[in-house]
Amino acid sequence: xxxxxxxxxxxxxxxxxxxxxxxxxxxxxxxxxxxxxxxxxxxxxxxxxxxxxxxxxxxxxxxxxxxxxxxxxxxxxxxxxxxxxxxxxxxxxxxxxxxxxxxxxxxxxxxxxxxxxxxxxxxxxxxxxxxxxxxxxxxxxxxxxxxxxxxxxxxxxxxxxxxxxxxxxxxxxxxxxxxxxxxxxxxxxxxxxxxxxxxxxxxxxxxxxxxxxxxxxxxxxxxxxxxxxxxxxxxxxxxxxxxxxxxxxxxxxxxxxxxxxxxxxxxxxxxxxxxxxxxxxxxxxxxxxxxxxxxxxxxxxxxxxxxxxxxxxxxxxxxxxxxxxxxxxxxxxxxxxxxxxxxxxxxxxxxxxxxxxxxxxxxxxxxxxxxxxxxxxxxxxxxxxxxxxxxxxxxxxxxxxxxxxxxxxxxxxxxxxxxxxxxxxxxxxxxxxxxxxxxxxxxxxxxxxxxxxxxxxxxxxxxxxxxxxxxxxxxxxxxxxxxxxxxxxxxxxxxxxxxxxxxxxxxxxxxx
Length: 512
Ligand code: F6P
What we know:
By secondary structure, the protein is α/β, with parallel strands linked by helices. It has 19 helices and 13 strands. The chain is 45% helix and 13% strand. Catalyzes the reversible isomerization of glucose-6-phosphate to fructose-6-phosphate. It catalyses: alpha-D-glucose 6-phosphate = beta-D-fructose 6-phosphate.
């Protein structure tokens, strides 16, 4: 931490912390603490409202965090990110996911456009039947090569499904068998999605999927395979024909790769126009993130709230509840984005961090979660900042009562967390007491279409980046996943000296 960031934190720590109810004495609070990101759609302006009024952010805190952002050189680091500079210092490369949506170094944007065109041509050729009848796609990948595609396919295919996509990530064969059971091998394609094209789970699943096609009478199984990768030469070596290898740049991180050819299953499922709309929604957020400063930058403001709760209020987790069935995979997606990016213990310069880094991201879908985990949110001893995400337009065509109940519950939960109270008739029973003053933010989409999904994902990418800048860490590496992988390899090779517990477990399982 530099002297200026230390001074900014010291100032923040000394600020008064009024309760939420006290903060609402300001009648302009909702307006002051809310903001919208908008873009043009066929039917006019559409967008997303971000309401932080039910968080403890105050004018003073926002000013204090603006000083921290300045001391952390947020503006310079944002410019570096968006210009394709090598900000992933530990791996000596840029983080160029934004180039996929048109912002970045000129050469990288051009490369991304060319690769996307190639992907579009393959997607459209498949839709037109150039590779025979394709009814199903088994998309095999893990982590960033699966979570984004799974989320987007699940969210966007309720009304439109050109190809039936199954995303398989787990090495547990049960996952692949489930996909096999749902697909007709004669009309199934396999997408092998792996940035490195070496990940053991993905490569093992891919071999088994090829075998399944072969065993089920498909004459040219490898002719049914598409590779989505930043290591195209490895895909060709593995046996995928070059014409069906869709590369993306090495500088696009796995958990930021949905915009690249890793988005192939999305485009195949819903068509190129919808995939383009997703990119356009992300671009709208990008422009806001690039062109807006201080508290008005909504990605940065979200990071101010995150830092406030993690560092100044000691919150170890943050929860995200989507009041929308179509976003039921959003918390899973966010877990990797936030925890793999910012779950670090050293700064970009390799110094130990002097405070907590990423909280544990968890969550679920409303209203289900209300009947399962909200007890803790309302009355438990942990303070958990909550994000509610909802859409004004319904995703269903049933009686409007469904959507009305969904939204009223979402808003009521935020109100109850904040206000607290006592449910006992005499208002005195401690077991029925709700302390209140529990924070929540509401992210309210006009509609949940492809553009909005793209905007939501890009918003969280930039929020994650802004948090990293405020903490002084590099969000773009993930060395923390390597040690366990190395040890698994050693066990497999019969090498390494393990502890007595691990040895006993291996022996009991017949693997020792
Ligand atoms: O092990 C973690 C990780 O490297 C993630 O960062 C990544 O998204 C995932 O594995 C999959 O990697 P790949 O796309 O190279 O198969």
